[in-house]
Amino acid sequence: MSPLIEFRDVSKTFTSGSTTVSALDSIDLEIDAGEIFAIIGYSGAGKSTLVRMINALEGVTSGTVTVDGVTITERNEKEIRRIRSRIGMIFQQFNLFRSRTVFGNVAYPLKLAGWSKERQRARVAELLAFVGLTDKAWAYPDQLSGGQKQRVGIARALANNPTILLADESTSALDPETTQDVLRLLKRVNSELGVTVVVVTHEMDVVRSIADRVAVLESGRLIEVGSVFDVFSAPRTDTTRRFVGTVLKNRPGAGDVARLRARHEGSLVSVTIDGDAPIGQVLTDAVRRHDLRFEIVHGGIDALQGRSFGNVTLALSGEPEDIEKAVARLRAVAEVEVLA
Ligand SMILES: Nc1ncnc2c1ncn2[C@@H]1O[C@H](COP(=O)(O)OP(=O)(O)OP(=O)(O)O)[C@@H](O)[C@H]1O
């Protein structure tokens, strides 16, 4: 099956006066129908530029972008408008019309598409029920909380039954609890309506909460792409490791190791937990068989896409050969590193 969204060797440069900025550099990326795909990167990495190419709000300098089999970078305005009508978008600042009610905001794209008043009413009622805002139909945006405003944004973006929803930093203006509410709603948009969702964010917690796959952008280049589990459990670049470190307790850094060494006797051993490896059982056996003691001194275990994942650092003390044997047994079930 061909991907729903495909970037082939896409580059983008912005030129103003004598300065040229490379916003995107040779991007190859595929997003499949039905997935929740996240694009993460620091400010200026090129995330917005990339996502805005999907609905042709941004053009390419070179390369091609194909959406549902149509190479939009080669199409005229009229054809682009037709494709755009199948793509919804939500924004960090919600972009609602302040002078229109919630009903008026959600009905707006339907009005533009020439729907009758009666059909508009029925569709808006359905959308407001879906996002849980039926009782706010006649409120104005200024009377709503940030989370409610984003729900209106989502209802409006869904009005024309899009196949793709683009969410550009859609929770960045919200507190953590409201963020989770909105992310749960986006998950329902994906699972109940079958909409492919592309989320742009600088927060790894958003990626962990919602995405199936993630791409990491740095200075306009795609440095990593994979399932959320794979990227979190085995990040291949320092930038990705830093992002992962913001939500998961990782292997201790150099400063942590020095501190741990000063406070604990024995060997420091870092064990990566992935799935249901019987780490506890191996440790209990080792303690029983050899004269060994252990202390858990750093780390934590979390759930990631339904699997346990994390890292714990143990201080193992006892005879060196017994520690070696215990480490060998741990190595049989997990990734283990003896910290220098
Ligand atoms: N219209 C423009 N004119 C000139 N430069 C631009 C324009 N749009 C983006 N850029 C530059 O392109 C680079 C990528 O910007 P982009 O907004 O895509 O990054 P981002 O990862 O979305 O960042 P942020 O999280 O801060 O929004 C930046 O260096 C930015 O300054």
From TrEMBL:
InterPro entries attached to this UniProt entry: AAA+_ATPase, ABC_transporter-like_ATP-bd, ABC_transporter-like_CS, ACT-like_dom_sf, MetN_ABC, MetN_ABC_transporter-like, NIL_domain, P-loop_NTPase
Coiled coil: none
Any single Pfam family the record assigns to this protein: ABC_tran
Record key words, sorted: Amino-acid transport, ATP-binding, Cell membrane, Membrane, Nucleotide-binding, Translocase, Transport
Gene Ontology molecular function terms on file: ATP binding
UniProt keyword annotation of GTP-binding present: no
Protein name as annotated: Methionine ABC transporter ATP-binding protein
Organism: Streptomyces wedmorensis
Native organism taxonomy: Bacteria, Bacillati, Actinomycetota, Actinomycetes, Kitasatosporales
